[in-house]
Sequence to fold (147 residues):
Amino acid sequence: MIDVIQIQKILPHRFPFLLVDRVTALTPNESLIGYKNVTIGEQIFEGHFPGHPIYPGVMILEGMAQAGGILAFQSMDMTEEEAAQKVVYFMSIDGAKFRAPVRPGDRLEYRMNVVKHKGSIWVLEGKAYVDDTLVSEAELKAMIVDK
Fold:
């Protein structure tokens, strides 16, 4: 398991834009399962939508991207110091689909799988679930570069 303190050593994101609370399973070069607890206290719900809070699809995709970044970083043979000098840039998001709304109180689970990896380029399949219901999916392409 990777907790949020360890995640902050891998990703540069911070509150309110760090969208992965914990990683529960990780197989380097293959897959990752992690989650975000969606709470009513998040700033995004002040405007999306008052009286009918729905977690934005773009935030779900960003959470998948962050989970994919953790998978890529943890799959590469780098020290913590070397990793601190790198950043993940997302190159494309293809086939994004939103299947069900995500609401405050949901635990949004990201399931990421490596489709292809060559050099610094990663292609990842991402799926997001709430209680085993698929809520979103997309294929993400990313590159790890020097800061």
Notes: Residues 57-75 form the longest helix (19 residues). The beta strands are 22-27, 31-37, 86-98, 107-118, 121-130, 133-146. The radius of gyration is 15 Å. The first strand starts at residue 22 and ends at 27.
